[in-house]
Specification:
The chain is an alpha/beta fold. The longest helix is centred in the middle third of the chain and has 13 residues.
């Protein structure tokens, strides 16, 4: 996903308001102040909500434009913001909770990238800490659902922006699509590919990385994962040694 352009980062912030997933990860952090690492933090909605509750938060994202939006949010000054990919992030700090939210996991298009992110998580996890992330269930027809929701209209700084999405390819685990943002005086277009790995494949990669699945959920209310109908595959993992 390409969120390097400031105007697209602004649209992302408007199109992705706080929702159930944010509340879920806040509850995962618990009530007592803890250290939290958010990999692929985007515009920082979760980071700032956690900081407001007294947690010590580090937000990591490769897109400077997304971090620029995050820094301006309430409680943004309490968060450590780091411009980096999740694969390459390194710190001497260790964390009680490490998350990757907003389906950012699905931009990892190869096993090597996924293993690199899991290594980042394992390396930075405190003893007794946990990892949380989610991916969309590949059994559902996401391409059809996204096409049915297009176009969408957003108001950005008083201007109407028309967002359209066109699926360009479906191949095994991958869906590619083109998103256009039509402003009054310009149109911006991005091309993206997401991966939809199976639950079993992700579990195998976690084991290879020294992480163990402690819980697997199918929705933000904490319901169990059901392969035929759950929209999400939500993983809670811990260190395996």
């Amino acid at each position: 996903m390409d969120y390097q352009h400031p105007r697209i980062a602004e649209i992302y912030e408007i199109a992705n308001p706080r929702a159930q997933d944010t509340d879920f990860y806040i509850s995962l952090a618990g009530d007592r102040p803890s250290t939290v690492l958010d990999l692929g933090c985007g515009t920082g909605t979760l980071c700032c909500a956690l900081a407001e509750r007294g947690h010590r938060v580090t937000g990591v994202d490769p897109a400077a434009a997304m971090l620029a939006v995050a820094r301006l949010k309430p409680h943004g000054e309490q968060v450590e913001w780091v411009e980096s990919s999740a694969q390459l992030y390194r710190s001497r700090r260790r964390f009680d909770l490490i998350v990757m939210t907003g389906h950012a996991f699905q931009i990892l298009l190869t096993d090597d990238d996924t293993l690199a992110v899991f290594e980042t998580m394992r390396r930075h996890l405190n003893e007794g800490g946990k990892v949380g992330f989610e991916t969309r269930n590949p059994q559902l027809d996401w391409a059809r659902e996204w096409s049915a929701r297009s176009p969408a209209t957003h108001i950005v700084r008083g201007e109407k922006v028309l967002q359209t999405l066109k699926v360009t390819d479906e191949n095994d685990e991958f869906i590619s699509f083109q998103t256009s943002y039509r402003f009054p005086r310009e149109t911006l277009t991005t091309s993206s590919t997401l991966r939809f790995p199976s639950r079993e494949h992700i579990e195998a990669l976690l084991v290879r990385s020294g992480l163990a699945v402690r819980n697997m959920l199918g929705d933000w209310d904490g319901g169990p994962f059901q392969a035929a109908r759950s929209r999400e595959i939500i993983f809670i993992a811990v260190s395996n040694g």
